[in-house]
Write a structure and sequence with these properties.
The complex is a heterodimer of chains A (361) and B (276). With 361 residues, chain A is an alpha+beta fold. Chain A is built from 9 helices and 21 strands. Chain A folds into 2 domains: 231 residues, P-loop containing nucleotide triphosphate hydrolases (Rossmann fold); 123 residues, OB fold (Dihydrolipoamide Acetyltransferase, E2P). In chain A, the strands form 4 sheets. In chain A, strands 6-7-8-3-9-10 form a 6-stranded mixed beta sheet, sandwiched between helices. Chain A has a 6-stranded antiparallel beta sheet with strand order 13-12-11-14-20-21, with no helix packed on it. A 5-stranded antiparallel beta sheet of chain A has the order 15-19-16-17-18, with no helix packed on it. Chain B is mainly alpha-helical. Chain B has a domain of 189 residues: MetI-like (MetI-like fold, Orthogonal Bundle), CATH 1.10.3720. Classes of the chains: A alpha+beta (361), B mainly alpha (276). At the A-B interface, strand 6 of A face helix 7 and helix 8 of B.
Chain lengths: 361, 276
């Protein structure tokens, strides 16, 4: 269990963490998602004890960690820079925790353990090599191995898959959570990749400018995003956000008046809003729900499905449809779209100082 | 165009050869001088009957001057000074590279300032102190005073080596379960080995070449080659051939040291400059 409350950290004039609140439950796989510079790595290092917060408390398993040295916290961390010992072989890097006074194992047992981990990560053949002669992807796996090789109160993983090639990344993403040690151990996983966060996280925390914006399961983050930026962060193609206002009848009317959607929102008429609908929630042709009429702008094949961009008045929306439904669609063909009312999200309009918050659905 | 380029090349070569002759001439002169017999010292320039008598006299301790002892003294004192500076200076350099604490920059600057002041400004008070403390003409006294020369050098150069090392390596060691001291010894120190080799050699040469401290703070027991070589100039007739032989013999240890650690040197001296 990891709990951060009211954690502040500044470097000179730069605020890295700003009253950060984070609660990772025992045994949970928690993904911290945010753009670079949001404070993800600082958060990990604060938990590890490598950075001392200016204010706030860090608790591990309910114990306040103030004044506890990193080597006494019992956490293992995988650095984004790998931080492998360049003067040692891959084997000696993996063996490092098992030779330390705190996690020492007899040499024979250590060798067995390292063998298992190397097997798991597909680096058995590389163990004798000096770290300098490994590729980035191989180094990253050795760095991950150094974390998994020893028991820990929590694993802190800083973008551990970012340097793997696409195929290996996908494979490792699938395997990572199945690893016994990971399944049993509280894991705080930092990434800037929303696909990774959705695939791995039991819960996801979205961090921005040193604050946690939203914490929740993938369903909560997906269906009830806190604001437009969280909504934009998840899902490709991105969520459609149409600008408009709340009409006198309480419905939505787009800025150019071409799109009208009846919604139930508790917003005053005249409020500037954005209405959001995910590309996979828009259906081509008639079906239940609200209907919209527009013309095809462009189509793009994504494999088995097709992304269709449709012009609705002055705005464009994209939707993803099965390939069969889009056969014969040409630019400027008229199309009808439908969307189920429960799939509409209503946000305040974005402002320069902050993205618009969700106010409906 | 081609011709002009080639001409410039020749001119550059000629300039380099000229400079080479200019720079090597004193050494060549010393070699010639050291091979001259005493009676031809002042009578000839380049034609003489070469002899190794000068070297025999110097290394044979004749003339009543214990040159071999001076030589051993120099070795003991210089190696001792470098060793002490490494023991004290490496942790100091590491700490100052990794942690800012109150007054840390002032402390580092004070250390550097030992190199600003000419040694002569402090030599008289040191002489008095050494007389009173019984450190005059002792190994301990010499090793101690040479810290003024070797310690700032080692601390400041090693500081930049440690600063170039990413702290994440030691952080990884901390999370592997090692203490800060173990992280320093097992991770940081092995990675700056080329730097340690280069800076040790440099400090050794500085200590070996130091003249003022042994001149004033030793008389006989702990005297070093730099001062000892001049002893041959005393007496009724200055024996320049013996001084030249002594000087050439005393070049050998730094030269040998430089050759043995040569492969570290290039890496060591360019470490901070080249981003990997």
């Amino acid at each position: 269990m990891i709990r951060l409350s009211g954690v502040r950290k500044t470097y000179g004039k730069v605020t890295a963490l700003d009253d950060l609140e984070l609660d990772v439950r025992e045994g949970e796989f928690f993904c911290l998602l945010g753009p670079s510079g949001a404070g993800k790595t600082t958060t990990l290092k604060t938990v590890a004890g490598l950075e001392t917060p200016d204010a706030g408390t860090v608790e591990l398993d309910g114990r306040d960690m103030r004044g506890v040295e990193p080597y006494d916290r019992g956490v293992a961390m995988c650095f984004e820079s790998y931080a492998l010992y360049p003067h040692k072989s891959a084997y000696d890097n993996l063996a490092s925790p098992l030779r330390s006074p705190r996690h020492r194992l007899p040499a024979a047992q250590a060798r067995e353990r390292i063998g298992e981990i190397a097997e798991l990560l597909g680096i058995s053949a590389l163990l004798d090599r000096p770290v300098g002669r490994l590729s980035n992807g191989q180094r990253q796996r050795v760095a991950l191995g150094r974390v998994l090789v020893r028991p820990a109160r929590a694993f802190l993983l800083d973008e551990p898959l970012s340097h793997l090639d696409a195929k290996l990344r996908q494979q490792m993403r699938a395997e990572l959570k199945a690893i016994g040690a990971v399944r049993r151990t509280t894991t705080l996983y930092v990434t800037h990749d929303s696909v990774e966060a959705l695939a791995l996280g039991d819960r996801i925390g979205v961090i921005r400018d040193g604050r946690i914006v939203q914490t929740g399961t993938r369903e909560e983050i997906w269906y009830r995003p806190y604001d437009t930026e969280v909504a934009r962060a998840f899902g490709r193609p991105r969520i459609n956000l149409l600008p408009g206002t709340i009409a006198a009848d309480g419905g939505f009317r787009s800025a150019d008046g071409e799109v009208e959607l009846p919604i139930r929102a508790e917003a005053a008429p005249g409020t500037q809003v954005l209405i959001g609908v995910r590309p996979r929630d828009l259906t081509l042709g008639e079906s239940s729900g609200h209907e919209l009429a527009g013309t095809v702008y462009v189509t793009e094949v994504l494999g088995r499905s097709v992304e269709v961009t449709v012009r609705l008045g002055e705005q464009h929306v994209s939707l993803v449809a099965p390939r069969g439904d889009t056969a014969g669609l040409r630019p400027d063909d008229p199309v009808r779209l439908s969307v189920r009312p429960e799939n509409l999200l209503l946000f305040e309009a974005d402002r320069p100082e902050r993205p618009g918050r969700r106010i409906g659905q | 165009m081609m011709f002009r380029k080639r001409l410039l090349g020749w001119l550059a070569d000629a300039a380099l050869i000229l400079y080479f002759l200019f720079a090597l001439f004193p050494i060549a002169w010393m070699v010639i001088l050291s091979l001259k017999p005493t009676n031809e010292l002042f009578s000839t320039y380049f034609s003489f009957s070469p002899t190794l008598d000068g070297y025999r006299t110097v290394l044979g301790d004749s003339e009543g001057i214990p040159f071999v002892r001076f030589f051993v003294n120099s070795l003991v004192v210089s190696l001792g000074a470098v060793a002490l500076s490494l023991i004290v200076g490496l942790p100091a350099a590491y700490a100052s590279a990794r942690w800012r604490f109150k007054g840390s920059e002032n402390l580092m600057f004070t250390l550097l300032s030992f190199r600003f002041a000419p040694e002569l400004t402090v030599i008289i008070p040191l002489f008095v102190l050494y007389q009173k403390l019984g450190l005059f003409d002792t190994y301990v006294g010499m090793v101690w005073v040479l810290q003024l020369v070797t310690l700032p050098l080692i601390v400041w150069i090693m500081r930049s080596y440690f600063a170039d090392l990413t702290p994440e390596l030691e952080q990884a060691a901390l999370l592997d379960g090692y203490t800060r001291k173990q992280a320093f010894v097992r991770v940081a120190l092995p990675l700056v080995k080329p730097g340690v080799a280069a800076v040790s050699l440099l400090a050794f040469i500085f200590a070996w070449n130091n003249f003022v401290f042994p001149l004033i703070l030793t008389s006989n027991e702990a005297q070093t080659v730099t001062v000892g070589a001049l002893s041959f100039l005393g007496g009724d007739r200055p024996k320049y051939n013996l001084t030249a032989a002594a000087a050439l013999v005393s070049v050998v240890p730094p030269l040998l040291l430089a050759l043995t650690i040569q492969r570290y040197l290039v890496r060591g001296l360019s470490f901070g400059a080249v981003k990997s």
